[in-house]
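yo

u said u wanted the structure for the complex thing, so here. seqs first:
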Amino acid sequence: MAELLQLAALLVLLTVAAGLLRILRGPGAADRVMAAQLLGTGGIAVLVLLAAATATPALLDAALTLALLAAFAAVALVVAAPGRASRR
Amino acid sequence: MSLLLDGFTLVAVFAGILFFVAGTAGLLRFPDTSSRLHALTKADHLGLGLIVLGLLPQAGGVLPALKLLVIWALALLAGATVGPLIARLAREEDAPP
Amino acid sequence: MTGLLADLAIGAAILALAAGMVAARSAFTATAFFIAYGLLLGLAWVRLGAVDIALTEAAIGAGLSGVLLLTAAARLAARPVATERAPGPLLTALIALCCAAVAVAIGAAILSLPEPTPSLAAEVAANLPATALGNPVAGVLMSYRALDTLLESAVVVLAVVGVWSLTPPGGWGGFPGPFHLRVESGPLALLARLLPPIGIVIALHILWVGKDAPGGKFQAAAILAAMWLLAWMAGLATPPRIASRRLRFAVSAGAGLFLAIGVAGALAEGAFLAYPAGWTKALVLAVEFALTASIAVALALLVMGPPEEEDRA
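structre next:
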């Protein structure tokens, strides 16, 4: 069971890491924000999977923190995005 | 019983991974920003949701299970509010002043 | 097997993100890379079994530092400074050479560490009960190396002073941060109203478990600061003017209390920062709570930046 959950964590990690190509390609700021947000969600998924696989409950707290901060970072990326007209 | 629960966990977790794979594929392959946003929210909401659902029987207590649910709720809240913000940003980028 | 693959994947992704960050043409893209980079670094710390550092990296590395860089980039874009000449090919080569030399030196230092690595971990674990704390990291930070923690908390105060000293003429004493933030409506305002109450509860949880499990003041303070900044970005919370005495007290109170307890230890027990027997836990908790509040305010003020001129209001 633990092995399979670790495999699941690895699969999620590989998947969202592939999604990072979108930061590189863009083209717009919106696409880059999306890739960062996907990585945030994927990171949360990896942490909860590892918390169960390795029986480390502290990783759930790390996932909670990440969930809060990922939302905050995504909002900040949108607010500070260069193409955002309403900021001026 | 435990075998049944383990089976449930694996089915739900790997279904969640399917959504992550689909969401990433959409993010990389879809032609325009709006479609890509559509793909992303599936990974966010359903991918993480199914993984959390699958892990609930393994949480080993009410408090860790509650934490898992809160984590998903936070991701839902973030996705639901950041999605429209990204869409607005994409529209503003498409139509330069 | 999965462990090795995961390590390889994380390592490769971190290197790719670092390369992307350096090569990115716009500051915004580079910052997006930086946030992703901090997140993966957090996962690397998890793989190394250092959950405490992973928590800090997720909160401060990916979250707050990324947003700090974003606001800095936005400020630079709003008022372009005269950019210096781009370095010539000779200077570029020299910079590359120096960076490579530093990287090789660090790599050589790590590879030349003796086997087994010298460690005080066993002694820390053996003496942990004396500190009344269950988390070895908290024991080291608040007891064995309390002096380092005291200096760190003073550095945060000094950083705020340093940022405020960059206030342009005419802005001194005003509201921190740029003026052009307006009251948002719609999704951003909704999130800025819903998330902070949840965030405050989670921050207190992280702070409270920090004495027995991974967590603690810096992580909790980073979450609190992020919640305040979220309300600030949505235009819902106006920070006090930097001339406000209460704000200045809030920034320095934590380090001040820590210092006072340290001096009291010198008077009562004969050693600076010694905790009187039986009082350890109460004093450590008092310092942790005061420092959390002060660091949270300080981190938020660092991200907001110095005030701008009054006439831009």
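Residues 2-94 of chain B form one domain. Residues 62-94 of chain B form the longest helix (33 residues).
cya
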